[in-house]
Design a protein that fits this description.
The complex is a heterotrimer.
Chain A (H helix, E strand, L loop, with lengths): L1 H14 L25 H15 L6 H7 L3 H14 L1
Chain B lengths: L7 E10 L5 H9 L28 H8 L13 E6 L6 H9 L10 H12 L5 E5 L5 H14 L5 E8 L3 H9 L23 E10 L6 E10 L12 H14 L8 E3 L6 H15 L6 E2 L2 H4 L3 H18 L1 E2 L21 E2 L4 E8 L3 E9 L2
Chain C lengths: L1 E11 L2 E4 L2 E4 L28 H14 L10 E8 L3 H12 L5 H4 L6 H10 L5 E4 L5 H14 L5 E10 L1 H4 L10 E10 L9 E7 L11 H13 L4 E6 L4 E8 L2
Parallel strand pairs in C: 4-5, 4-6
Antiparallel strand pairs in C: 1-2, 1-7, 1-8, 2-3, 6-7, 8-10, 9-10
Helix pairs in contact in C: 1-4
């Protein structure tokens, strides 16, 4: 899953235009929203669009969203799980 | 206030176009508890919406033509009249037509200034200056505040306000991307509310500064503020809206007790209504006046809606009644705000009108009926 | 009534002007559109890069004007913004995301002219009134008029008055722009009636007409560049400004 985590870090930086950051600055297990990267609810909506666009994976509701965006690692594992179903 | 020798900002005439129709039609239907919200899809988005009663109004020129007779512009003097155009996006169809079919803009550009110039021509208003106000969903109320300030300071003797915001693919997909839309329709302050409903809206109003007569509705005061909290979500405490309302009351030299009712912003999103309830109950402390939202009947018409709802509030003030809040059944906020599915008698002859917009903008206007 | 000019900023073709002087653009930076966060703000601010052009210019100008200042009454500090050409470039980017099948929530939330003040209000905690006008290429002048009005009516104790123009080259070429020039610039003035020290030592007296001057070309950039120059050089002077919306006499004088 490490290559996916790496790719995700780059994509998050690109999509959310976090120009101050490099992939190595992002801790794979740190919270994405709020603390840490300081992403807000609009950013999480952008990430939902990213998942659909790049991985064909949907986030059905806000609760799932909270778990999925808990960290880059949880995001990666959600993608792996839902990818194999499609 | 009494009809003594005092000048006031008088709301001379106004008119609206909504999903329930003209001002008379809209107010009559509101008091019947009717709603113009219909199932989607709305530009491909699977949500309820509130399109103009006559969908041809969605074209800025046609709406402006329909609103022209609503005000008496015959005695306006160019050198002392300001035209204030209030919109969030206005009529964005030239942008969409270009992207979807390569059609080049003709009558006007998507730029708000171009829309304002075009509308002013159709309305045939003699105005020496144009101000285009784009304060998101509080544009109309901000426009009224700017107009009032101009009249009181002598920078204008008449102000014509025009608001226009049409539902478009642009706006529908945008709100949908923000997860802000209710699938089945807006239910302001209700326990099962789940988002807003986009609505078409247009409104026109003429303000002058003169000695008022009994029965006139005046813009007694206005105030605004910023939440400084989040790009699109309101502050959770309602502090910003509270301060805007307080400023409007102070501007009107009125106390909370003088307020007969509150025309809420009431978009029916989880956060707005919760925040607004806090703001309202903080302002009124003990006895809360009747409150209502029209967005469960005619949807949320963005910047234009802010002006449209002030015009509706003026009519309600004249009737001394708050209309039912369509879409409301069971109170779903912590504070006991008096929202009802039935009409309520206003407890006094002034109305507090609240608007809030993206970017944390809050704008409040106080209307009073002269006794 | 004379108003204290507490601070100022300008993002110009030649560089960034502020109370600490003029800083030319770095090699590789074509102009204001390329402004970097570290050039206007000392602390990291990840959200800076996310801002659409108009919002970024407004935020940059505000940051230079507010750098190192403690704002006394944030609750009554207002923001006014004149943004000619509105959010045209942002609107086009959003429409492109819709056509591509993936409407962007972040871009949509920036498609309002007023979104340019959102980040400023949040970052600096400015909770006073807002006035955003998007007019005929000279709305900066109208925004200044509204700022003066807010101070005169005591609806604000201080106002950050901004003037922004943001049309990217690719968008200026579009028929949607109606011939609007491609340019990026931003100006900021922090004005107040409060007595005190630590401002620019310049005072502004402004009078505005009831009507505009028909046919007057849009000249926000010209007027504000001149205004900022007088403030920076601590020179008194009078600027007669006119747009089709308003005519103004702006007088600057050094504090006694």
């Amino acid at each position: 899953m490490e290559p996916l985590i790496d790719t995700l870090k780059r994509q998050i930086i690109a999509v959310l235009k976090l120009s101050d950051l490099k992939p190595e600055d992002i801790d794979a297990d740190a919270p994405l929203i709020g603390a840490g990267l300081g992403l807000d609810s609009i950013d999480s909506l952008e990430l939902i669009v990213l998942l659909e666009k790049e991985y064909g994976v949907t986030v059905p509701d806000a609760n799932t969203g909270r778990q999925v965006f808990a960290s880059v690692r949880s995001l990666a594992s959600y993608i792996e799980q839902n990818r194999s179903k499609g | 206030m009494t009809a003594a020798l005092r000048t006031a900002v008088v709301l001379e005439d106004c008119g609206i176009l909504s999903s329930l129709g003209t001002l008379e039609e809209t107010v009559a239907d509101l008091f019947e508890g009717a709603s113009a919200i219909v199932p989607g899809p709305c530009f491909g988005v699977p949500v309820a919406h509130a399109p103009f009663k006559d969908v041809s109004w969605r074209s800025l020129g046609i709406a402006a033509e329909a609103l022209t007779p609503c005000i008496d512009a015959s005695s306006l003097d160019k050198d002392t009249t300001a035209f204030i155009f209030c919109a969030a996006k206005g009529d964005i169809s030239p942008l969409e037509a270009y992207y979807e079919s390569g059609i080049r803009p003709e009558a006007f550009l998507p730029l708000l200034s171009s829309q304002a110039d075009y509308a002013k021509k159709i309305l045939n208003i003699a105005a020496g200056r144009t101000i285009v106000v784009s304060d998101a969903c509080a544009s109309g109320a901000t426009g009224v505040e700017i107009g009032r300030d101009m009249l009181v300071s002598g920078r204008a003797r008449s102000v014509v306000l025009l608001g226009f915001d049409g539902i478009s693919r642009f706006v529908a997909t945008g709100f949908h991307a923000l997860s802000a839309l209710s699938p089945a329709g807006a239910r302001p302050f209700d326990a099962s509310r789940d988002g807003l409903t986009v609505g078409d809206g247009a409104a026109i109003a003429l303000l002058t500064y003169r000695e008022p007569f009994a029965g006139d509705v005046v813009v007694a005061g206005a105030g605004s503020s910023n939440d400084a909290n989040h790009r699109t979500g309101p502050s959770r405490t309602g502090d910003g809206l509270f301060r805007a309302a307080k400023a409007a009351l102070a501007d009107a030299a009125l106390a909370p007790d003088d307020i007969g009712g509150v025309k809420c912003h009431g978009t029916a999103t989880k956060y707005n209504d919760a925040m607004e309830a806090k703001a309202i109950t903080s302002l009124f402390c003990e006895e809360y006046p009747p409150c209502f939202s029209v967005k469960g009947a005619i949807g949320h018409a963005s910047g234009a809606g802010s002006l449209l709802e002030i015009c509706v509030a003026a009519e309600c003030l004249r009737r001394r009644l708050a209309p039912p809040t369509a879409g409301f059944e069971t109170l779903g906020v912590d504070e006991l705000v008096p929202i009802s599915a039935k009409p309520q008698i206003l407890r006094n002859h002034s109305m507090l009108c609240l608007s809030a917009g993206f970017g944390g903008i809050n704008a409040a206007v106080v209307l009073s009926e002269v006794q | 009534m004379s108003i204290r000019v507490e601070s100022f900023a300008a993002l110009l073709p030649q560089g960034i002007a502020g109370p600490l002087g003029i800083r030319p653009w770095d090699e590789g930076q074509a102009g204001p559109g390329d402004v970097r966060r570290d050039q206007v703000l000392n602390k990291p601010y990840p959200a800076f890069g996310k801002l659409m052009l108009a919002d970024r210019l407004a935020f940059a100008a505000a940051s230079v004007a507010l750098a190192g200042r403690t704002i006394a009454n944030k609750d009554s500090t207002a923001i006014t913004l004149g943004i000619s050409a509105g959010s045209l470039s942002t609107d086009m980017r959003y429409m492109e995301s819709v056509i591509a099948g993936f409407p962007s929530p972040a871009i949509f939330s920036a498609t309002l002219p007023s979104s340019a003040i959102a980040d400023i209000a949040i970052y600096y905690g400015l909770k006073g009134p807002n006035r955003v006008v998007a007019g005929n290429g000279a709305s900066g002048l109208t925004a200044l008029e509204l700022a003066v009005s807010l101070l005169k009516t005591k609806k604000a104790s201080a106002v950050l008055s901004l003037c922004v123009y943001a049309v990217e080259a690719q968008d200026a070429a579009s028929p949607l722009a109606g011939g609007a020039a491609a340019a990026s610039n931003a100006f900021a003035l922090l004005l107040s009636l409060q007595p005190g020290n630590g401002g620019t030592a310049m005072r502004l007296s402004a009078s505005f007409s009831a009507v505009g001057k028909e046919g007057a070309p849009a000249r926000d950039e010209l007027y504000f560049t001149e205004l900022i120059r007088l403030v920076r050089e601590q020179k008194g002077g009078i600027i007669e400004a006119a747009s089709c919306d308003v005519a103004a006499t702006l007088s600057l004088a050094k504090e006694e």
